[in-house]
Amino acid sequence: MYRVSGLDSNEIVHRIWHQLIYCLKNLSKEQVNIKASFIKAIIDTLCNETGESNNAVIECCLLIGNQGKELDYKYEQLVDLLRIVLTKHIENEQLLTMVLQKYSTTVRVQGNINKVFLDLSKQLFSPLLDGRSLYPSLLPLIDDILKHILFHRTWISAYREYIQSISATKPISCPVSPLFTALETLIRAGNSNVINFLPLVFRHCINLIDPEKVSDIFELLVQMNTWLEKIENENLYIDGICQLLRILDEKHLIDQLLNNSLEERITNWMKDILFKRSFEHTSENYANLSVVCLCLHPTLVETNLSELTKLFSHSNQCLSIFLIGYIDLYSRMRSLPKFTKRLSIAFDTSIILPDQVLKHYRKCTSECTHTLIDEIWLSLLDQLDNNRINFIIIQLISALLDGYRLFDLNISHATLIEQSKIKYDRTLEKLRQQVNEIMSTSSNATHRICILQCYLSLGWFSLCLTSFLSSIPPVYDLYNHNGPLLSQTQWISLQADTEIQPILFSLACQRLYRALAVNENDIDPKFIENLLELSSFSSTTVVDQLEPFFDFLPKTKQLKLVKLFIRHIIEKPNIDRTWFISNEDRLRLIVQASVEYAIETNSHDDSQIKKKRKIDFEENIDSFYDHLQTKSCTIDGKIISLFTTVTFASIQTPGLLISIGWLALNTAPVSLESMQILLDIIHSSKVLPLLLINHLLEFTLNTNNEKMIDQVLTVLSANENYQSIVKTKANQIINTMKSNEDYQNIRLLEKHLLLFNHSRYLISSNDLCSIIDRLINSSTHSSISYSALDTRYIIAMIILNSVSSYNKYLIYLQQTWKSIAREIHENDNLKQVVISYAKHWVDVFQSNSTIDDINSLVKCLNDQYELISKVIQEIDQNQFQQWIENSIQNIKIPLEDQADNIDNCQQAFQLLQTLTHCSLNKEQNIYLMTILNSTLTKCGSLLTHLPMESSRLSQVVSFVFMFANNILMAKKAQLRSQIALSLLQCCLHLPMDILFLQHSNICKLVSLLIKHHTATLCKHVPIVETILKLLLQSVITQAKEKQQTEEDLIEAARDITKLSAHLIEQCKEDFRSTIVYVLIDYVHLLSKGVFMSSALKKTLNGVAFELFRISGERVEQYSGQMSVAERELLKQLHQQFKQYHMFKGAV
């Protein structure tokens, strides 16, 4: 046992703090009064205790802060508390923020600034800087505290005295000495947070030094560098000295220092920084230090440039950092022409500069004036010695040309061409002089690429220039511009080099575009073949290269380009083709190229040369298709695969649809792709040539694909423009069969049965009967299936829908129905057949239908209420009653947990639900109402006696509630009032998880009962209130157990809110006196600490607000029964209601 804060044991301390937390949570701001002893207890506990007691103290402090109360610390207590929090509890950002804000406020009113300064320097300086780096969000607050104390105006003279003492090398004691002592100690220890704060001190001191005493700045800088040099970590040292040197550059002080007598000393000092200390010279930090020194003292760095470049030669990243800084320096001085000369002297001319450097050089030159660019270009050419290959200059010329903004220059085109042509020709000449030597002697691929890249840049520059000319000179060679750079032999030999292939490919693409820009007819097709033979290239990558220029080409040249690649596009199905069909304009190009390619490669008449007719999508659609039909072609399936992803409904040009349709019709062998494309085409809203539709129908009937045949015939027979084609085709087949006596060919009849079915209204009734008779009387049927439906069922549909008198077919129809009834649950395609039977039920069965027949019909057509009504009205009352009684026998209590029993029960409910929507005669309707009342009364018992372990409990509850809701909506107040009570009882005995899953059905059921059986519900208020409590409990339980998604929980809360609002509309007065108990129960559930998202809590509170409307002010009368926490929570909810929701909807 020992004493802590006046208490006897750790356990007592722990319990007392937790008791304080409980009180703070349940007391209002006005009820809390804080004494000085409490503040002392906080500091003592945080200083001496650990674990749970500390956590409890921190929670107490935060609770007090959240209540808007402030702890009245004395200054000394606040310093102790801040030190403890910074050293022991810095991980708690909220506590640290609160204490810092209090400290910031307190020190501004503290009278003794000297004491504050000393306390900060000796106790809080390092911990504050640690917090500054740990929490970026607190950086402004901490910096404000540090600047207010350390840089207070009181210390201006003290800072000046200290700086002067450094120059005089006579250490003196002054008020700010403790700060500099702390700085030196922490920097020598390698404290990175203090090093990052040092520039603020340095900048403050600079601002205090008189302009005539500029040498004091250098002395202070040397002093701080001396501290930094003691750091073993070289990255920390470089980072610290760089920050100090950047301030010199920022304040423009270096020029004043170098003009002083200190120039030699400063130069030597900076040289020591760069070269004396043994740095890791391949580090990025050292490269950054070199750039800083370059900006401050260019002469020093350029004098030692060769030495620096050797240090960076093994690191591209370091070299990039240094050269980018070098470029920026000369760019700011507008002396970029001199930069290249310096570079050529310091570097080996065979070096390849990093890409980052070239990109930056291109960016800087693109921002220069035309005059300065001319000067840079001429300077580069002067350094390009004919007898020595200088790869640095070649790379810089390439970057310069790539960044040249020709179209943005405000000078005349004639002047631009005149000024640029001389430099262009001179550059090209020097490249030619060097290229042969490089290509033949150098084994270094990067050197080859360097030369070719410059040549590529020169080519694009040339194309930009020629675009300003009224006429473009002819092109004699496809591989090069303005004369040969590489011979054809060299070109072919270089293609084998995989490293150089990409740049060769770019050159070839440029040549292709150049040729298109001049005259597309001069392009040699062999060039294209050679280009695409390179394994890594494709038509898509070629077009990607040319895409920036493609849309600027005339349509004829765009078409020429696509035609050049069409064979490759077709024969390489693995390449990406989306570019070619990305919009209708490009689709026109690919379709036209495909059609012309198909005609040229598949024409069967080569005896004479025929004049080619231009493909014109805008001409008359009939004549356009007639022209295509004159071409006897067999189309490769690879062509049609180009159009499988096209959205045909969005195509506005009928000619495109016709062309693609023609390609699909002539594709061999027939593929699913071509059939699907034809289906998509006829589904489009465009009017197509009748000849095309006729050919499409012929093509379809020959595919033996029943799905394709059925879909095509469905579209054509429903379209008035195309019905004549279906009729003509059907009659043509019938006449052919007559002349050839093909009525004996059962297989042929079955094959065309779908056509006869779709055209049944378009052909002669006698012909139709002949076909039907032959098929019915046949003893054998083909084993080949031409339809998803059996031949017998299609015949039955044709008879029922088309034959005017079918008495002679009654036996056949009745026998066929028996087969249908057996298969009705296994075949989803039978519904259309059953509908045909339902329309002619009385005529077919002539009062001989059985209960099983009617049952099969209703199960299949449970949503066809009009047809079902027509059938049921024709059966007698006894048969109707027997049918219903047989069905409801499956609604058993208790319902056994077996699949067959549950399915039969569900079907019985479904039957009654279907009959509710049907139009019945008077007797049938009276009997049905009796059955419905009886069945609804059973629902409560059915659910209460259902075994809870039932594996399909949720399914049973779902279909029972859906049945009840549908009957209530259909029959409304016609049902007996006792049913309302029975249905309410259903909701009281469900497990919580089932109750939650069925919340929508339950809320809907109670709302319907409120609406249509108000009087009954108002007599059973406790049951309704219990249902509300259970619904709220189910939502909160599911939120606690995290078994449902956030969206489902919010949806359930919304349903309960709507139900509560419905109570207000219908029976507010009946619930006014007792609904408060639902509110109390809800608050009790919330007080258990269930975590809920703000969105869910907001939605659930909406239920409480609706209940407040009913209860009025009575809620406060019952709050005495609640605990303090629950009472406070209820009070908060009631205040929110009165403030924001009480007058909702009121005007």
Automatic annotation (TrEMBL):
Example of a GO biological process term: ribosome biogenesis
A Gene Ontology term for the protein's cellular component: nucleolus
Lineage: superkingdom: Eukaryota
InterPro entries reported for this sequence: Ribosome_Biogenesis_Reg, Urb2/Npa2_C
Domain called Nucleolar 27S pre-rRNA processing Urb2/Npa2 C-terminal: residue spans: 972-1145
Entry protein name: Nucleolar 27S pre-rRNA processing Urb2/Npa2 C-terminal domain-containing protein
Species per Swiss-Prot/TrEMBL record: Rotaria socialis
Lineage: Eukaryota, Metazoa, Spiralia, Gnathifera, Rotifera
